[in-house]
Design a protein that fits this description.
It is a single chain. By secondary structure, this protein is α/β, with parallel strands linked by helices. The chain folds into 2 domains: 237 residues, Phosphoenolpyruvate-binding domains (TIM Barrel); 46 residues, no CATH class. It contains 12 helices and 10 strands. The strands form 2 sheets. Strands 1-2-3-4-5-6-7-8 form an 8-stranded parallel barrel, surrounded by 5 helices. A two-stranded antiparallel ribbon has the order 9-10. α9 runs parallel beside α10. The two termini are 14 Å apart. It binds coenzyme A and magnesium ion. The site of coenzyme A has 14 residues, from β1 and α1.
């Protein structure tokens, strides 16, 4: 699944949900968690289901995910039973803390897919795993257990700071502090070790489009597949930032051509040695080009 841009929409906002029709995001995420105050959770579940039913699977331009509440809130059954009848493409599971937590969510989904006549394991999970201390420390588990529905991992420096009892997640120079950059890298490593998409946390300064574009280009080169968004204006910027540049595409085509017809695992291009990781990287670039057409 191509998930470069995933736009959060607060589940209790009829007005913002109505904007989803104009959105070019690969996915929207109807939020039942942090952007919805406790007294509005029921209203949000109902609006989410209405939205899903009025945008049936075959007619969706963007995939539709629903972010449920974390396990600790004790409303897993209520959240999932509230939205699964609308056949969401996926569930965003916040504050995940390892394979067992994802399995807990997945088992409830098994039962609801059966009840609703949906194909088994057709509803995917993106877990926000690096947003608590335990979540960050259990990121390696997914590579071993490979939970069936899990397709992507993300992280969250604000919830992580709250979990750590920190007063900020920033250094004096304004960048994320070491622990947060570590959690970000561990999310990337955890995702890639398990063959999953790595989806970065949102850029909360939603007016800073130039900064967002530069950030997306940088993290894409590092291997990230997408980024969460909180404002519609971020979507096209993110989609653009996750496209390989023409120079990268030309270089990738030349790398592949350099190996053409060779039986060896090594080739040379412009006086530089290439071996199989270069070929793999070049194929990654062209696969992303083709996926983002
Ligand atoms: N989805 C859909 N529509 C959105 C939107 C979103 N995430 N964010 C803003 N809009 C709409 C606004 O309603 C507004 O509509 P209007 O022109 O008809 O009034 C328009 O886009 C422009 O919005 P703007 O005035 O620039 O922003 P705002 O001050 O209304 O909202 C936020 C700012 C941050 C509150 C809003 O972007 C938001 O709710 N983001 C999602 C928050 C969230 O889900 N967080 C949880 C994950 S971290
Ligand atoms: Mg949160």
């Amino acid at each position: 699944m191509l998930l470069r841009s995933m736009l959060f929409i607060p589940g209790d906002s009829e007005k913002k949900l109505a904007k989803a029709a104009d959105v070019t995001a690969d996915a929207i995420i109807i939020d039942l968690e942090d952007s919805v105050a406790a007294p509005r959770k029921d209203a949000a579940r109902k609006l989410a289901l209405d939205f899903l039913k009025s945008h049936p699977l075959a007619a969706r331009r963007s995939k539709v995910f629903v972010r449920i509440n974390p396990l600790e809130a004790g409303v897993l059954g209520v959240d999932l039973a509230g939205v699964m009848p609308g056949a969401p493409d996926g569930i965003v599971f916040p504050k995940a803390s390892g394979s067992a937590s994802v399995d807990t969510v997945s088992h409830v989904m098994d039962a609801l897919e059966k009840r609703e006549g949906l194909a088994a394991a057709s509803t995917k999970i993106v877990a926000i795993a690096g947003e608590s201390a335990l979540g960050a420390l259990t990121l390696a588990e997914y590579a071993r257990s490979k939970p069936a529905r899990l397709i992507g991992l993300s992280w969250g420096p604000w919830d992580l700071a709250a979990d750590l009892g920190a007063s900020t997640n920033r250094d004096a120079d304004g960048a994320f502090g070491f622990t947060y950059r570590l959690a970000m890298s561990m999310t990337l490593l955890g995702a890639k070790a398990a063959g999953l998409l790595a989806i970065d946390t949102p850029h909360t300064d939603f007016k800073d489009e130039q900064g967002l574009l530069a950030l997306c280009k940088t993290i894409r080169r590092d291997g990230w597949n997408g980024k969460l968004a909180i404002h519609p204006a971020q979507v096209d910027v993110i989609n653009e930032g996750f496209k390989p540049t023409p120079e990268e595409i030309t270089h990738a085509e030349r790398v592949i051509a350099a190996f053409d017809g060779l039986a060896d695992g090594v080739a040379s291009l412009d006086g530089v040695m290439l071996d199989l990781p270069h070929l793999k990287q070049a194929r990654n670039v062209l696969a992303l080009r083709d996926a983002s057409k």
